[in-house]
Amino acid sequence: MLADLRKIAGLAWPVLIGQLAIIAFGVIDTAMVGRYSAVDLAALGLGSSIYVSVYIGLTGILTALQPITAQLYGARRYEEIGEEVRQALWLTLALTVIGFLILFFPGHLLQLARVPDALHERTVSYLRILAFGLPAGLAFRVYGSISNAVGKPRLVMILQVGALLLKVPLNTWFIFGGFGVPALGGPGCALASSLINWALALLGMTLLTRVDVFTPFAIFKRFCWPVWRRQAAQLRLGIPMGLSYLIEVTSYTFMALFIARFGTTTLAGHQIAGNIGAVLYMTPLAIGIASSTLVAQALGAHRPEAARTLSRHGIMMAVAIACCYGVIVLALRPYVIAGYTPNPQVAAAAMPLVLIVVCYHFFDALQITTAFVLRAYKVAVVPTAIYAVALWGVGLGGGYLLGFNVSGTIPSWLTGARGFWVANTASLAIAGIGLLLYWRVISRRHVRAARKLSADASV
Questions:
Q1: Which residues, including other chains, have CB under 8 Å from residue 407's CB and lie 6 or more apart?
Q2: Lower Cβ count inside 10 Å, N or C end of the chain?
Q3: Collapsed DSSP state (helix, strand, coil) of residue 178
Q4: 181 - beta bridge partners?
Q5: Rounded to 5, what percent of the chain is helix, strand, coil?
Q6: Calpha distance 69→65 (Å, rounded)
Q7: Is 37 helix (H, G, I), strand (E, B) or coil?
Q8: Of 251 and 454, more confident
Q9: CA distance 32 to 382
């Protein structure tokens, strides 16, 4: 067990640092814009929720490259990896068109939130700037997927940490203005992020041609047109994965849209709680990515029992750390919120929500780690169905019933933003348990199939 935990930790810590660097973008944006104006902070919360939904949904499709590449790497079929990457880049181009149109014309989504005109204008400006950075963000995801698949997450981490070093000065310049640039407020964050995304994409594509570990794949040695057979294989896995990401994120996005109806102060408090939850989420996400890489490589090398053991240890590791994080957040809750905002009304709105985040994070850790392990087995359809029922049905539907007190019988402490967060926590519990039970079925099936094959070969 300790050997597995060391392997997982060895891959997880660079992923964690890199992901924390990226999530720090959101934390920095929230903290800096919160000191610019409450309206811009609310627009940032709304706009970032929409952007993340689009970005995560599209990159979820591209993330199918990781288990595909990891299994090929475990089987030492290097030339096929290069072909899969080239096909993933064609997918990136197609997905860019879809995402750009959604972000540049977000009016129908904002109508759902019934936001004031001032908030509407700032949110549209924020999203339209991010639309121009989306192609670079998707291209960098391809680079990140292949780097993680071959067990080299440090190559991603270095670039992400470098990007973080640029974020604060660029944010300061664009949000508050200076050197001939007017104060842009919330949209200034989007401009800084878009410029950084393009720098990351260009560096990532360059490294794919220069770093020794990628040389056997010959990714850019030749040009190729889209190959439908390979495109279809990536889409069969990628579309359910993208949908599961989309379901997970849109359950939060629509929660923000509905919470916007309770006013700017409540929405700002929700943004703080969501930011804290997102920071905590990075650790189980890193463990899930690391576990998925090792499990996929083991499956590619025809070692299903090792894959099952690695899966179990990864899930246990993520859940144990989530419990520790919960205790820390519970003890430091007032100080953490004070770091986000000096506004006492916003802090009061965030306080009960952050308390719910403690329970929310435990089940979040369980579901995301198990989901990544299942993706290593190239299983995505059933997990997507579990997500849809739990997160959209119980989480979003239940949150609407509680938050707006549709029945008229909900106690006041369970209405408003708190009702949405409680329902979302329950939905993650259902998703996590459902995914765990399904993983047990899938992993046992692979072990039995391998044993049967070995027995037949020995006859």
A1: 401
A2: C
A3: strand
A4: 178
A5: 85, 0, 15
A6: 6
A7: coil
A8: 251
A9: 41
Concatenate the DSSP letters of all residues of 113-136 into one string: HT--HHHHHHHHHHHHHHHHHHHH
Which of 269, 407, 293, 431 minimizes the C-alpha distance to 345? 269
Half-sphere exposure of 264 (CA within 13 A, CB side): 16
Q: Give the separation between CA 43 and CA 116, rounded to whole angstroms.
A: 10
Evaluate the CA torsion angle 447, 452, 454, 455 in order and state its sign: positive
Q: What is the pLDDT of residues 58-108, one digit of tens each?
A: 888 888 888 999 989 888 888 888 888 999 999 999 999 999 999 998 877
Residue in the structure block whose two tokens are 């640039």: 181
Enter the tokens of residue 169: 């000065």
Q: Is the pLDDT of residue 138 over 90?
A: yes
Q: Which of 265, 235, 237 is nearest to 379 (CA)?
A: 237
> Which positions ≥6 away from 284 have C-beta within 8 Å?
318, 321, 322, 364, 365, 366, 368, 369
| Spatial separation of the C-alpha atoms in residues 207 and 216, rounded to whole Å | 14
183 in Cβ contact with 177 (< 8 Å): yes
Residue 181 three-state SS: strand
- The per-residue pLDDT of the chain, averaged, comes to 87
Q: Which two tokens stand for residue 349?
A: 């709105």
- As to burial, measured by CB atoms within 10 angstroms (0-12 exposed, 13-18 middle, 19+ buried), residue 389 is middle
315 forms beta bridges with none
Packing angle between helix 154-176 and helix 2-34, nearest 10 degrees?
10
- What span, in angstroms and rounded, lies between the C-alpha atoms of 330 and 357? 9
Which position has the token pair 């993520």?
Answer: 318
Tokens representing 145 are 């997927």
Domain residue extents for the chain: 2-450
Give pLDDT tens digits for 328-375: 988 888 888 888 877 888 888 888 888 888 888 999 999 999 999 999
406 three-class SS:
coil
Q: State how far the Cα of 398 lies from the Cα of 115, in Å rounded to an integer.
A: 23
The residue type found at 282 is M
Identify the three-state secondary structure at position 78. Answer: helix
| Sole residue written with tokens 């707006």 | 404
Q: Which residues of 271-285 are buried (b: 16+ CB within 10 A; e: fewer)?
A: bbbbbbbbbbbbbbb
Query: How remote is the C-alpha of 104 from its chain's centroid?
Result: 21
Maximum Cα–Cα distance for the chain, whole Å?
A: 80
Residue 216 class from Cβ within 10 Å (0-12 exposed, 13-18 middle, 19+ buried)? middle
b/e for 334-344, b at 16 or more Cβ within 10 A? Answer: eebbeebbebe
